[in-house]
Structures are given as structure tokens and as C-alpha cells.
Design goal:
Length: 184
């Protein structure tokens, strides 16, 4: 019998908060004020989770807008609302600084977001946008006028070789000292 907690997906709003807090550690830029970049990174986290774990990180509607992805569950925010959200995210990061989990985000979700932040933090906005627009999932959603299809994101996931920044290696390569099991 499967453990439901083990199979539970993270809430997109909690992941957004962790992404904002984690990104601030790297760039001192609040993604609450840069929605296109935030949305691209949330998508890339979903794609990477599918590539590594073959399961979605979150379940939400994603639309293909003119300039990239749109998450209807994540509202447009005024400057004041973005500042309040940023402060809330930093407050949530206090727990992480003390070795805990970000409120409402699984260890897997934290790992995936952290990896995406480290991987794409220095990619310029225009290149990140091109990367998103070149994905099969965006093109299919744009063509059909329908939300993203998880199977199209899976196709995008099969085209990448995920890298684990914490271990400084690709997920598919053996780490030093790992024994290979050849069954004959």
C-alpha cells in the first residue's frame, strides 16, 4: 500500500514562496516582482521532477501566454503585495536556515527548487524565455489554446539530462565508490 504522504504533491503557492526565498539567497532579486522568471523556474522545476522522479512536483493549471507561462493560481501582485510576499518568504526561510523545512514544502520540492535556482540563476531573462518558448509543452498548449498537458511536459523532461548541484554530478552517473550490479 502506498503512503499517501509520500505521493502527495506540493502546493504551487508554497513552492512559489520557497522559490522566492531561495532565489533571494542567490541573487538578491525578489521573484515576486519578476513573474515571467518566477513562472519559468516553476515550470523548469516541474520538468526536472518529471525527469528525475517521473512524477509531478505540483498539480495546477499552466497556460501558454504570449511571452511564456502563466499560472492562474498565482495572482498578479501590486508592488506593495510583492514586498509583503517577499518578507513572508524571507520569514519562512528562517526555518530553513536553522536546518528545517520551508513551511508547506516537501524535502523533494525544496531539493528540486534549489537545484533549478542554482542551475538557472545566471541565465539571462531573454534566454530563459526562449528556453520556455522552445519547449514542446508550450508550443502544444499555444497551438491548442488549452492548458499545458502533463504528457507534453514529460516529453520535454525526456529531452534533458538532469544535474544534481548538491552532488555536482548528473543523476544518471555513478558516484565514486558506488558498486555496479551487473546481473547475468
Amino acid at each position: 500500500m502506498h503512503n499517501e504522504k509520500e505521493n502527495a504533491m506540493d502546493n504551487i503557492k508554497n513552492l512559489e514562496k520557497y522559490l522566492i526565498g531561495r532565489y533571494l539567497q542567490e541573487k538578491w532579486i525578489s521573484l515576486a516582482e519578476v513573474p515571467q522568471r518566477r513562472n519559468a523556474l516553476l515550470y523548469l522545476a516541474q520538468r526536472e521532477e518529471l525527469a528525475v522522479m517521473d512524477r509531478p512536483l505540483y498539480e495546477t493549471i499552466i497556460l501558454a501566454g504570449d511571452k511564456g507561462l502563466v499560472f492562474p493560481e498565482i495572482p498578479f501582485r501590486t508592488s506593495e503585495e510583492a514586498l509583503t510576499l517577499t518578507l513572508d518568504c524571507l520569514y519562512g526561510m528562517r526555518v530553513v536556515y536553522m536546518g528545517g523545512l520551508f513551511p508547506g514544502v516537501s524535502p523533494e520540492g525544496m531539493n528540486r527548487i534549489q537545484n533549478v535556482v542554482i542551475t538557472y540563476k545566471d541565465v539571462p531573462d531573454d534566454e530563459l524565455q526562449k528556453m520556455v518558448l522552445n519547449q514542446i509543452s508550450w508550443q502544444q498548449a499555444r497551438k491548442s489554446g488549452q492548458p499545458y498537458d502533463l504528457e507534453d511536459i514529460r516529453k520535454d523532461a525526456r529531452m534533458i539530462r538532469p544535474y544534481d548541484n548538491a552532488w555536482d554530478m548528473y543523476y544518471d552517473e555513478p558516484y565514486p565508490g558506488m558498486e555496479t550490479c551487473d546481473s547475468e
